[in-house]
Amino acid sequence: MVIHDGQRALDYLKCEGEFQDRDEQDPLFVLLDLKLPRVSGLEMLESLRATPELRKLPVVVLTSSRLAQDLERAYELGANAFVQKPTSFEELKHDVGNILSVWGRLNKQPPRFPTAQVGGVA
């Protein structure tokens, strides 16, 4: 699923707002652009890491930003990877294919809930 708005993406992942009735099956990972309307990618990442059910959801930042502070902040907030968008569309397709292969096929997904909450035990 592609969502172009940071707030709507958070609502989707948290099963809130218009997505409150969605199947709670999470994506295998989030491919996150830093430049999103309403809620920025960094704000979204911070919110995901503050949400116990989503804290371990893999997040791959894919951005045109070349700023060292964006790279540093993304990792401080818990990004699993930071990929700068290349300048050509062909390179972008290749890079996205590699990301999908690793994070969508090869990576083992973490459980949705922290171990301490499995089976209703808090």
UniProtKB/TrEMBL annotation:
Membrane-spanning parts: none
Q: Which UniProt keywords apply?
A: Phosphoprotein
**Keyword Phosphoprotein on entry:** yes
Nucleotide-binding is among the record's keywords = no
A single BP term in Gene Ontology: phosphorelay signal transduction system
Using the record's annotation, list all stretches that form the Response regulatory domain: 1-100
4-aspartylphosphate: modified positions:
D33
What's the superkingdom here? Answer: Bacteria
* Name of the molecule in the record: Response regulator protein
Q: List the source organism.
A: Caballeronia fortuita
